[in-house]
Write a structure and sequence with these properties.
It contains 10 helices and 12 strands. It is an alpha/beta fold. The protein has a single domain, classed as TIM Barrel.
Length: about 300
């Protein structure tokens, strides 16, 4: 495993993280605690130390699984979660960004995660006046001072959200989470430059393009109704799978699993600190972690040399 410094936070995190939306039950299956425990045991074995979750991956369900899985060695993990939504059933959310609402969400997340602090607390896909809210950022700054939150970050909804990215430092955010993968390179146009200018850590979510870059699916494949990908535009899904097939043929080195190549491809951009793929089992965790070993993952990095 390689590690990079997450921007101005100073935290050294594994370049491969652990995405956990799947634990909330919206990716085609439900999990038991023993299955989640096995995933975290493998992640630790592979050197992964960064976890990304959210309040609305189930009603704090993902957080509850994580809390039980890591409570015995909490200090060895860098734990990131998010705020702003409430889960009301599969794919059903309401939005809650007022300071008092977020404070309650924070307490609920701390309880679910069985911890008294969160390493990175992220504004989750908020827009407009949800972001332009001094009371919110003042409240969060107080939580940082109190030690309940170590660092604040932004998980931007749109890949070209320059408004929020450019103002990150002004409201106390130290990281940006953004969709970035071989099928969607939008952040390269402007967002990454603003991140480098402010020394913001960059977390690349959906690095496998919702699995379209995993190498497991072919053009024409159909996803089950309880899989979030079933809700994607069918024509767009077909297009992405066709492009992925071409990439596998023309860009992925022979003998390299496509998913590993796709993760390593994200990490070669100098602005990216960490990729956060999901995983369904320990075997996928191990495969994802091995992406850090590929030659295209460079050791020179402006936010701290890989270690």
């Amino acid at each position: 495993m390689k590690y990079r410094t997450l921007g101005k936070t100073g935290m050294d995190i594994s370049v491969i993280g652990l995405g956990t939306w799947q634990f909330g039950g919206e990716w085609g299956r439900e999990y038991t605690q023993s299955e989640v425990d096995a995933i975290f045991e493998k992640a630790k074995e592979m050197g992964i130390n960064f976890i990304d979750t959210a309040e609305c991956y189930g009603d704090h369900l993902s957080e509850k699984f994580i809390g039980k899985a890591i409570e015995k060695d909490r200090d060895q993990w860098i734990l990131a979660t998010k705020f702003g939504h409430k889960y009301h059933g599969l794919y059903d959310r309401t939005r809650h960004y007022k300071a008092e609402e977020v404070l309650q969400q924070l307490e609920d997340s701390l309880r679910a995660l069985r911890t008294d602090y969160i390493d990175l607390y992220q504004f989750h896909s908020g827009v407009g006046e949800e972001f332009d809210n001094d009371e919110l950022w003042t409240m969060l700054d107080k939580q940082v001072q109190a030690g309940k939150v170590r660092h604040v970050g932004l998980s931007i909804k749109k890949n070209d959200d320059i408004y929020q990215t450019s103002r990150a430092s002004k409201i106390g955010a130290e990281t940006i989470q953004v969709v970035y993968n071989r099928l969607d390179r939008t952040p390269e146009e402007e967002v990454f430059a603003y991140c480098e200018e402010q020394n913001l850590g960059v977390l690349a979510r959906v690095p496998l393009a919702s699995g379209y870059l995993s190498g497991k699916y072919k053009p024409g494949d159909v996803f089950a109704e309880n899989d979030v990908r079933h809700r994607h535009d069918k024509d767009e899904t077909r297009r992405k799978l066709e492009v992925a097939a071409e990439l596998q043929k023309n860009e992925v080195p022979e003998g390299v699993p496509m998913a590993q190549w796709a993760l390593a491809w994200c990490l070669k951009h100098r602005a990216v600190t960490c990729v956060i793929p999901g995983c369904k089992d320990p075997k996928q965790v191990e495969s994802n972690a091995k992406a850090a070993e590929l030659d295209i993952v460079k050791d020179d990095h402006p936010q701290g040399a890989a270690k």
